[in-house]
Amino acid sequence: MFSLFVPGFVVMFAFFIVGAMGAELLQERQQGSLRRLMAAPIPRWTIIIAKMMGYIGLVLVQVLIIFGVASLFFEMPLGDSISGLLLVSVVLGLTSTSMGVMIAALSRTDKQADSLGMLLGFVLAALGGCIVIGSPVPLYNQGGLVQIISRLTPHSHALIAYGKLLNEGGGILDVLPQVGILLGFSAAFFLIAVWRF
């Protein structure tokens, strides 16, 4: 049972940093420190990546704590591929922080970024299958239009990857399609952020 619900919490909490990250970047822009960095003779994308690295680390710490507690105290199996879990977790962190930078680039104020990040956090978590709604079958596996809509979120692909690793005994090769899709989301969010910054 934990192997079904814990990944949902992991993915949902990873995307809760989107608003906080966006708000912090906008505060730096309003205070002028981001403008000074942008004036330095370095490409914009390197500044954005440097900002993202700290938040990716935060996501990895969250994942470690949640999976660690579930495994140690509730005997949740972690599957056969710790390297697969690490890969999916790093790409999850990259995707959520890329979204955070995009939200910062599209928002006008830090409060707007925080509110938009929180709203997206809950809506995408529900659509992506992190929050169980009615049926015990996740939305990304229900078929039809619901499944199509669910799979338009990065959340669903992270959950599918964790499911393959934790519940199906999969390895790195089994999650490469989902890792690729998450990297695609990351690239799209990052390119929008660089363009708007």
Describe this structure in words.
By secondary structure, the protein is mainly α. It contains nine helices and no strands. Helix 1 (2-15) packs antiparallel against helix 8 (154-167) and helix 5 (82-106) crosses helix 6. The model has no long low-confidence stretch (mean pLDDT 89).
Taking all Cα atoms into account, the compactness measure Rg is 17 Å
What is the average per-residue confidence, as pLDDT, rounded to a whole number?
89
Span from first to last CA? Answer: 43 Å
Largest sheet: none
Please bin the fraction of helical residues: over 70%
Multimerization state = single chain
The percent range for strand residues is under 5%
Regions with little confidence, pLDDT below 50 for 5+ residues: none
Which structural class fits the helix and strand makeup?
mainly alpha
Number of DSSP helices?
9
Give the total of beta strands. Answer: 0
**What would you call the shape?**
globular
What is the N-to-C succession of helices and strands?
HHHHHHHHH
Q: Topology of this protein?
A:
Blueprint: H1 2-15, H2 17-31, H3 33-39, H4 44-74, H5 82-106, H6 110-128, H7 144-150, H8 154-167, H9 172-196
Q: Which properties best describe this structure?
A:
globular; 9 helices; mainly alpha; 197 residues
Précis, in short:
By secondary structure, the chain is mostly helical.
